[in-house]
Write a structure and sequence with these properties.
The structure holds three protein chains of three kinds.
Chain A lengths: L19 H24 L4 H23 L7 H26 L2
Chain B lengths: L17 H4 L4 H29 L10 H37 L7 H20 L18 H4 L4 H28 L12 H33 L12 H35 L6 H14 L15 H29 L8 H24 L1 H7 L3 H31 L1 E2 L2 H28 L13 H31 L1 E2 L44
Antiparallel strand pairs in B: 1-2
Helix pairs in contact in B: 2-3, 2-4, 2-15, 3-4, 3-6, 3-7, 3-8, 3-13, 4-6, 6-7, 7-8, 7-9, 8-9, 8-10, 8-11, 8-13, 9-10, 10-11, 11-13, 11-14, 13-14, 14-15
Chain C lengths: L15 H32 L1 H8 L4 H26 L3 H31 L7 H5 L2 H36 L9 H25 L3
Helix pairs in contact in C: 1-6, 1-7, 2-6, 3-4, 3-7, 4-6, 6-7
The chains are: A mainly alpha, B mainly alpha, C mainly alpha.
Chain lengths: 105, 536, 207
C-alpha cells in the first residue's frame, strides 16, 4: 500500500517502454488462442461443463495476456496487482454464493 | 513568526452564484452538498412525520393506502440516496479530507465538481417523479421485481435517479482513494492518517466496487419496463430472487458506506474531547477495512425469507456474525479512549456518545436479524424498521450532526451557543428513543412494516412513537435554528476552539482558499498524540 | 492577491501517477458493471441450459470470430502507439491510433449487420418471432442484446476517447513527457477488448 506514495516529482515519471516485438508476440498468442477456442467449440464435442470450463480458461488466459502486457500491469507497482486480485476475488465470491444458492434449492 | 499576508478565507474571495456552483474548491463544493443534503433531510423528515401521523390511530385517517406506499418509498429514496449515502463523505469528506491530509484540494477537482452536478441531476430525477406519470414509485426503496416492473407509478424515473446518484457516489469514492494515496503531506504515512481519513478510505472502496452492480441492475429494470421484456418477471422465465441478489450485493455494502464514515467521525471527536491519545489506533483503522471487506460477503441476510436455498442462508448467517467483530473492536476502543481522559462534555462529544449508545442497540438488534432462525420471525416487521433506524439515523445521523457541531467553527469561523446546542441535543435524543424504541417492541409483537394500518393491540406503542416523532422534529429544528443564528450572529471562533491536533486545526477558521499559509506540521507519533494531556 | 505559499502536494498539480491510478479504479467499476451482467447470465444459463444452446445457433460464429480478431488487432495498435509516442515518434503514434479508430468502425459495422439480421428475423425483444420463443431463448436474446449493446456503447465511447487523444497529440498537448491521456485512452480501449474476450465464447461458442 505504501509503495506508490513516494513523493516523487509529479511530472514525467519514467515509464516502461514495451518493444514492438514483445507486443507482436503477445498479439500472435492471442490470435492462436482465439483460433483454438473456436476450433475446440466447433469440432470437438465434450460434456457441456467441460466445454464451458475450457472456453472460460482460454478466455481468461487471453484476458491475462491483455492485462499483463498491453495494459502494462506487469510493470506496475505491486499495489495494482493487489487491487486486481481483490476485485477478482470479490467477483468470484459473488459467483460462488450464487452458485451455492441456485444449486442447492 | 514569518510575515505571511493573511489570505482571504474561502468564504470571501470570489462572489456571485457562479463562483459557487462552478467552483473547483473542495470546501465550497462541500458546502453546496451540505445545504442540499440538509434540505433533503428536512423533506425526508417531513414525509416521515406524515407516516407517523397516519399511524397515530389504526385505520385510515390521513392518506390513501396507495399514497402511504408512495410516501414511504419517497421517504426511503430521499433518505438513502439523497441524504445518508452522500451525507458524511460528500460534505465532511470533501471539506476535511484535504485539510486533514495537509493538501489544498482533492486529486481531481473537476471530477469533484462533476460528482456534485450528477448529484443535482439525480435529485432532479427523484423529484420529477412527483410531477410526471402516475406519481412517485410505490415499491419501497428496494424496487423489488416483479412489482417494480408492473406498477403504473413512475418507477423508471426513480430508478434512473438512483443510477445517476450511484455514479456521483462512485466518482467521489474514486477521487478520495487517489487523494489519500497521492496527496498526503510529506511525512504522513498511512499510519499517521487521521481515522476519519481511514474511514473514508474504506468507504470509498465500497462505493467504487459495489455501486456498479446496482447500476447495471437498475438499468435492467429500466430496460424491462421500457421494452416490456421479462428478466426478473417469473411469468416470462425470469427469477425475482435474482433481482434481490443483485440488489443486495450493492445495498448491503452500502450500509457500510453509511456507517464507516460515521465511525470515522466518532474516532475524531472522542480523542479531542478526552484530550487523550486514541486507544488502539491501528485496531480502529484496520477494522474499518475489515468491515468494508466482510461487508461484501453478507448480502444474503436480507433474503432469508425470499426463497433462497437453506445452505446459502446458513452460510450468509454465519458470515453476518463476522461483521460484529470489527464493529465491537471499535466500540471497545472508543470507550477505552475515554477511560482516564480529561473529558470535556461539549455538544460534539454528546453526539458521539449518543452514536455509541444508539449503535449498540442497532448492532445488537442487528444480530437478532442476522440469526437465521430469529430473522424468520422478525423479518418485515417493525423490529427491522427499528433496527435500521437505530443504525442509520441513531448512528450515522447523529454522527452527521455531531460532525456539524464539531467542525462548525472551522467551516464558518463562528461559534454557536453551546447551551442551546446541549438543550436541542437532549430533546433530539429523547425524541429519537421515544420514536424508535417502541418500533422494536411492536415488531417483536408481530406488527408488519409498510402498511398504513395496524391491529388495535399495537395502538399504545404507536402513539408513543408518533409523539416521539414530534419531539424529535422539535429538537432537530431547534438545533438547525441554533446553528443558523450562529452563522449570522455567532461569536468569532478561534483557530482551534476544541484543542484538536489533527491538521485541519492548524489553519485559520475559516480556512484560506488554498487551505494552508504555511507547511502543516505532522505529528510524527501519530495523529492523536496529545503530548502532555495527562501532565497539564 | 498573489498567492505566496503553495503546498508541494497540491491537488491542482498534474500528477501522472494519480491519473493512472484514477483510470484503473474507473476500470474496476466498469468491470463490475459488466460483472453484474455476467452473474445474471450465469444464473439464467444454468437454469435454461438447453434453450441457451438452441438460441446460440442463431448467431454467426464467423462474424464473431472476425470481430474478435479485429478488436485484438486494435488493442495491439493502441499498445504500439503508446510505445511510439514514448519513443517520441508522433507521426507513427497518430498513424497507429488511426488504424485503431478504423478497427473500431469495422467492429461496429459487423455488429450492425449482425444486429440487423436478428431484427429481420424478428428476434429483438418485443418483436413477433421473439414473443413466440420459449422463455429460456427469450432470456438469451435479451441478454445478448443487452450485453453486446452495452459493449457496443463502450466501443463508441472508447472511439471518441481515442479521437480526443488524437487531436491532443496533434496539437502537442499530449507528448512524450506527458503521455497520461494516451495511456488512459489505451487502458480504456483494452478494457473494451477484455470484455469482448468473455462475451465471444459465452454467446457465440456454446454448442
Amino acid at each position: 500500500m505504501e509503495n506508490i506514495n513516494t513523493h516523487t516529482p509529479q511530472v514525467a515519471v519514467s515509464q516502461h517502454i514495451s518493444s514492438y516485438k514483445l507486443l507482436f508476440t503477445v498479439f500472435a498468442g492471442l490470435i492462436l488462442l482465439t483460433i483454438l477456442t473456436v476450433l475446440v467449440s466447433t469440432t470437438f464435442t465434450f460434456s457441456v461443463s467441460l466445454a464451458v470450463a475450457l472456453a472460460l480458461m482460454i478466455a481468461s488466459t487471453k484476458a491475462l495476456l491483455v492485462a499483463y502486457y498491453f495494459m502494462h500491469l506487469k510493470y506496475e507497482p505491486r499495489f495494482y496487482k493487489w487491487m486486481v486480485i481483490v476485485v477478482l476475488a470479490l467477483f468470484t465470491f459473488f459467483v460462488i454464493m450464487l452458485t451455492i444458492d441456485y444449486f442447492t434449492r | 513568526m514569518t510575515t505571511t499576508i493573511a489570505q482571504p478565507s474561502y468564504l470571501e474571495g470570489k462572489k456571485g452564484l457562479f463562483s459557487w456552483i462552478f467552483t473547483l474548491d473542495h470546501k465550497r463544493i462541500a458546502l453546496l452538498y451540505l445545504y442540499a443534503i440538509i434540505a433533503f433531510f428536512l423533506v425526508g423528515m417531513t414525509l416521515g412525520l406524515l407516516m407517523r401521523l397516519e399511524l397515530l390511530n389504526p385505520g385510515k385517517d390521513l392518506v390513501e393506502p396507495t399514497t402511504y406506499n408512495q410516501i414511504f418509498t419517497l421517504h426511503g429514496v430521499i433518505m438513502i440516496f439523497l441524504f445518508i449515502i452522500p451525507s458524511i463523505p460528500a460534505v465532511f469528506g470533501n471539506f476535511f479530507l484535504p485539510l486533514m491530509l495537509g493538501t489544498d484540494d482533492v486529486a481531481f477537482p473537476k471530477l469533484n465538481l462533476l460528482s456534485w452536478w450528477l448529484y443535482v441531476l439525480g435529485a432532479v430525477f427523484a423529484l420529477a417523479t412527483l410531477v410526471f406519470g402516475d406519481g412517485p414509485a410505490d415499491t419501497g426503496w428496494t424496487f423489488y421485481a416483479p412489482y417494480s416492473v408492473k406498477t403504473g407509478t413512475n418507477v423508471t424515473m426513480a430508478v434512473m435517479a438512483a443510477f445517476i446518484l450511484g455514479f456521483s457516489s462512485i466518482l467521489t469514492g474514486l477521487n478520495f482513494i487517489v487523494t489519500i494515496h497521492r496527496l498526503r503531506t510529506p511525512g504522513m504515512g498511512f499510519n499517521q492518517m487521521p481515522l476519519f481519513a481511514w474511514g473514508l478510505y474504506a468507504t470509498s472502496w465500497i462505493q467504487l466496487l459495489a455501486t456498479p452492480v446496482i447500476g447495471i441492475t437498475l438499468l435492467m429494470i429500466v430496460a424491462e419496463r421500457v421494452f416490456g421484456i421479462g428478466l426478473f418477471d417469473p411469468s416470462i422465465g425470469g427469477d425475482p430472487v435474482l433481482y434481490q441478489h443483485m440488489f443486495w450485493i450493492y445495498s448491503h455494502p452500502a450500509v457500510y458506506i453509511m456507517a464507516l464514515p460515521a465511525m470515522g467521525i466518532v474516532s475524531e471527536i472522542i480523542p479531542t474531547f478526552a484530550q487523550r491519545t486514541i486507544f488502539g489506533y491501528k485496531a480502529i483503522a484496520y477494522s474499518s477495512m475489515a468491515i468494508a471487506f466482510i461487508g461484501y460477503f453478507v448480502w444474503g441476510h436480507h433474503m432469508f425469507t425470499s426463497g433462497m436455498s437453506g445452505p446459502a442462508a446458513i452460510i450468509f448467517s454465519v458470515l453476518t456474525f463476522l461483521v460484529a467483530i470489527p464493529t465491537a473492536i471499535k466500540v471497545f476502543n472508543w470507550v477505552a479512549t475515554l477511560y482516564k481522559g480529561s473529558i470535556d462534555v461539549k455538544p460534539p462529544l454528546l453526539y458521539a456518545l449518543a452514536f455509541i449508545f444508539n449503535f449498540l442497540i442497532g448492532g445488537l438488534t442487528g444480530l437478532v436479524n442476522g440469526a437465521l432462525a430469529a430473522d424468520i420471525h422478525v423479518h418485515d416487521t417493525y423490529f427491522v424498521v427499528g433496527h435500521f433506524h437505530y443504525v442509520m439515523f441513531g448512528g450515522t445521523g447523529f454522527a452527521f450532526f455531531g460532525a456539524l457541531h464539531y467542525w462548525f467553527p472551522k467551516i464558518y469561523g463562528k461559534l454557536y451557543n453551546i447551551r442551546m446546542a446541549n438543550i436541542s441535543f437532549a430533546i433530539f435524543f429523547i425524541g429519537f428513543q421515544l420514536l424508535y424504541f417502541p418500533m422494536l417492541v411492536v415488531g417483536l409483537m408481530g406488527m408488519p412494516r409498510r402498511y398504513y394500518d395496524y391491529l388495535p393491540q399495537f395502538h399504545v406503542p404507536n402513539v408513543v412513537s408518533t409523539v416521539g416523532s414530534w419531539i424529535l422534529a422539535t429538537g432537530i429544528l431547534m438545533m438547525i435554528a441554533n446553528l443558523m443564528v450562529a452563522y449570522w450572529k455567532g461569536k468569532k471562533a478561534r483557530k482551534n476552539p476544541w484543542h484538536g491536533i489533527t491538521l485541519e486545526w492548524q489553519t485559520s477558521s475559516p480556512p484560506p482558499l488554498h487551505n494552508f499559509d504555511k507547511m502543516p506540521e505532522v505529528n510524527e507519533k501519530g495523529p492523536y498524540h496529545y503530548k502532555n494531556a495527562m501532565d497539564q | 492577491m498573489e498567492h505566496s505559499f503553495s503546498l508541494p502536494n497540491s491537488g491542482h498539480n498534474f500528477d501522472a501517477e494519480a491519473s493512472k491510478l484514477g483510470m484503473w479504479l474507473f476500470l474496476f467499476t466498469e468491470l463490475l458493471l459488466f460483472g453484474g451482467l455476467f452473474l445474471v447470465y450465469m444464473v439464467y444459463r444454468s437454469l435454461n441450459h438447453e434453450a441457451f444452446i438452441e438460441a446460440s445457433h442463431h448467431l454467426n460464429v464467423w462474424a464473431g470470430t472476425t470481430n474478435t480478431i479485429v478488436l485484438l488487432a486494435s488493442s495491439l495498435t493502441v499498445a504500439m502507439s503508446i510505445t511510439a509516442l514514448q519513443q517520441g515518434n508522433k507521426k507513427r503514434s497518430l498513424l497507429l491510433l488511426t488504424i485503431t479508430f478504423i478497427a473500431a468502425g469495422v467492429f461496429l459495422v459487423i455488429k450492425y449487420f449482425e444486429w440487423s439480421a436478428k431484427f429481420e428475423h424478428g428476434l429483438f425483444p418485443g418483436m413477433e418471432h421473439y414473443s413466440q420463443l420459449p422463455t429460456g431463448e427469450r432470456l438469451y436474446f435479451y441478454l445478448y442484446f443487452f450485453m453486446t449493446g452495452l459493449h457496443g456503447l463502450h466501443v463508441i465511447i472508447g472511439g471518441i476517447f481515442l479521437a480526443v487523444v488524437m487531436v491532443k497529440i496533434k496539437s502537442g498537448k499530449v507528448h512524450k513527457d506527458r503521455i497520461s491521456l494516451l495511456e488512459n485512452g489505451g487502458l480504456y480501449w483494452h478494457l473494451v477488448d477484455l470484455i469482448w474476450i468473455y462475451l465471444f465464447p459465452l454467446f457465440y461458442l456454446i454448442h
